[in-house]
Amino acid sequence: MGDRADSPESANFDTGRDFRQDESVNSNHKKKNNNSNNKTSTKGSNNNNDRLKPTLTIPSNTTTARNTDQYLPSSIDKEPKAPILSPISRTRTPIQGIRRFTRKNRKVNRAIAVTEQWENYTRKVYHEYIHSLVLSGWDNLTPLDEYMCHPTSAASCPLTVSVVDFTDDHTLKYYNDLCGEDDLDAFMQSTETKRDGKVRLYLVEQGGQLSPGVIEVLGRNLSCDPRFFCWNVFGSGQLMDPAERHRALFTSIGFTIQKPSDDGSEYSVQDTEFFRISIYIIPDDENNQEPANGWTAVIIFNQHTPITLSTRIFIPPPKFGTSLPSPPVTPLTCAQSFRQLYLTTLPTLPVATAVLSPFYMVTPLFQLCFHCWNTVIWNVREADKRVGGISTASVGHTEEIQKTMSLLERYGSLGWKTDDRVKMVVAEKRTMLIEDFKHLLSQTELLWDARRKWKAILDKRKDSKTSALTNSFTYMYVPSCFLASSPSYLR
């Protein structure tokens, strides 16, 4: 027992300390002493080496781990020991000193600070779910995870949420608008505001981008797919494959509108704005709700400029001699957001059909999209006619028209289910919308064909002017200069 206690192996066994570090320190001291005393005798160097060997005496009856540094010789104990850092701790340690001001080290320190803030941030329930997905390998959700670590203030991003229920007696039930994240969360968790009917709509409108707080509230209460919010904030990109995107329960529609001029008197042809409206249809069987034949829709309206428009242009007017409907609540001269415009179209929908088909519910949005695109293209063509050529106005994002056309062909999404009882009505509405967008595509092609022809005419005019100047220089200016410089007898 005494021999075993005096050996390094027994000390390591009793105290849990690894003596490989001590052996490396002893070897370094041996090399240092040998270099400094290379002129001395071999006997002296051997004595020095023997003196540096530690003699450890640890009681064998030790039952708990002890600090074995007290048993080391004083010559070794005074030497500083560098901490042994793992690769993770070495990369997580910020760079200090003057080297931290270089461009490379500034990026490293900034990345370390962001990573520490990302790891130390107190996540809520839905954010923790997204973070767990990222750690499990869903790298396409990393931008959303980092985005939710930076909450925004309510003053900078005003929120308005309209809630509408389609009741069982085929009527619309409107609730007061919700103007805050806390109000929205309390409304969704309250039993008094439980859905009255088979269908409920959440129409979300917020200045700027969708805030992390709203994402947390909607995602936690409705068990939303996080890819829906990632698509709304960052775009589809490489988020999903096309086949999976076509079958998802969520999609988006691209809009282009004309901004009003500086004085607000008319809309500017040269200045347009592009934005998206995201739609998510959540069936009851996704959240195990009762009854299972209903669904909940979340429609997010991204920030855009309000426009002046009456949605009654989408329905035929009443016949002559019949009673006219009452004037709209909002004056026609007042600009409205698309959330308000969509609310005005809901009374015109047959509720019995809308509750059986999510696609039929959002058809007013496709009509608004067609009207906005058609207005922009028509105004651009008129501007080209006024200048007799190609005006400064242009049409961007024309590929979005083709994408919207594809949405119509898929009934919005292949994941949206339509009841067999209303398939004929829904198919007829879809056919009419496809005709409208085909007309829109043809008008776009005519616009660019006319512009290509005008460009060819302008290029020809430019070439003719260049040729006229070249001929005048060749046949008039050059001979006159030659005669002026020739001798008098040749004139």
Attribute tags:
491 residues; alpha+beta; 20 helices; 6 strands; globular; disordered N terminus
Question: How does the SSE layout of this entry go?
Answer:
Layout: H1 2-6, H2 8-15, H3 20-36, H4 42-52, H5 74-77, H6 87-92, H7 103-120, H8 125-135, H9 142-147, E1 159-166, E2 172-174, H10 181-189, E3 199-206, H11 212-222, H12 226-234, H13 242-246, E4 250-260, E5 267-283, H14 284-287, E6 295-301, H15 338-345, H16 351-354, H17 358-361, H18 363-387, H19 399-409, H20 423-485
Parallel strand pairs: 3-6
Antiparallel strand pairs: 1-2, 1-3, 4-5, 5-6
Overall description:
This protein has helices spanning 2-6, 8-15, 20-36, 42-52, 74-77, 87-92, 103-120, 125-135, 142-147, 181-189, 212-222, 226-234, 242-246, 284-287, 338-345, 351-354, 358-361, 363-387, 399-409, 423-485; strands at residues 159-166, 172-174, 199-206, 250-260, 267-283, 295-301. It is of the alpha+beta class and 491 residues long. Strands 2-1-3-6-5-4 form a six-stranded mixed beta sheet. Helix 18 (363-387) packs parallel to helix 20. It is globular.
Give a concise summary.
It contains 20 helices and 6 strands. The protein is of the alpha+beta class and 491 residues long.
What radius of gyration results from the CA coordinates? 38 Å
How many domains?
3
What summary fits the major beta sheet? 6 strands, mixed
Strand order across the largest sheet = 2-1-3-6-5-4
- What oligomeric state is this? single chain
What is the molecular shape?
globular
How much helicity do the residues have? 40-55%
The average pLDDT value, as a whole number, equals: 76
